[in-house]
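thread: overnight batch results

M.L. [08:02]
morning all. the overnight job finished for the chain we discussed friday. pasting input first so we're all looking at the same thing
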Amino acid sequence: MTTFPTRTLGRSGLVVSALGLGCMGMSDFYGATPDEEPESIATIHRALELGVTFLDTADMYGVGANEELVGRALAGRRDGVVLATKFGIERRADDPTYRTINGRPAYVRQSCEGSLRRLGVDHIDLYYLHRVDPEVPIEDTVGAMAELVGEGKVRHLGLSEASAGTLRRAAAVHPVAALQTEWSVFTRDLEAEIVPTCRELGIGLVPYSPLGRGLLTGVITSTSELADNDFRRHQPRYQGENLDHNLSLLAVVKEIAGRHGCTPGQVALAWVLAQGDDVVPIPGTRRRRYLEENVGAVTLVLDAEDRARLASLEPAGERYADMATVGGNSAERPPA
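M.L. [08:03]
and the structure it wrote out:
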């Protein structure tokens, strides 16, 4: 069996599979139901068999349920897995509408202990601040995270959706291994400032939603195909004329896929992978067949013309319905 390719996240020395697996949708946001858990666990097991050993979760996904699911899937299989989780967005099981950002030092430790317990592990390989708390100096939050590294509970630190200025301040406190942020053919705002800053500081890039939340796969053509509780029903890029425009852009993706004998989703993933050896996308899925399709993108080589044509596509609509809820440091960077 061919060894699955690996990449190193920045200058951290953290070696991960070139493609990760985002586990969020197994428990939340995309219409997941409890009866689908066996397939989700089977998908994680299949990922490990294929060599996709970089798994991503967060304490807010399913209000802890996703970490518990990942923990069950990894029972007896922890060795060789690079496990990433996140903290900093508080939710309440008894109030689905409640959500706030918390980067206070005491909460850092509390969150880590909870994640370790739910995951059933003694350390977290990559621990992210999910969103920057605008009320807490990033130095204080990262300082508390660094204490966890010193105690062996966490191996590497990361941030998610942080500005260039925040990255610099954080890295001055403790090395930052990775920035997790949205990056795809349809989301490229980070390329002007965030990507160069990461590379200057030796921070790897972990793109989430590299398939444009499903739009770039060509599978979804209407919100009527989505579950009633799928959050994409309310996202701007899935609305009315925005959706019509975005689906029209798929003609280019499909044409390139046809020439390469692959799927549109594989083209979209290959484009992200081609952005640099320090880029490790984490497409999410709870089904083995989509996982196996995603893995096929690792060996797909797009030429310069393919990449340029894909980069020219301009989608309609913001990434989120309320962009102000995404970023935690709007003074330094427009919320992302």
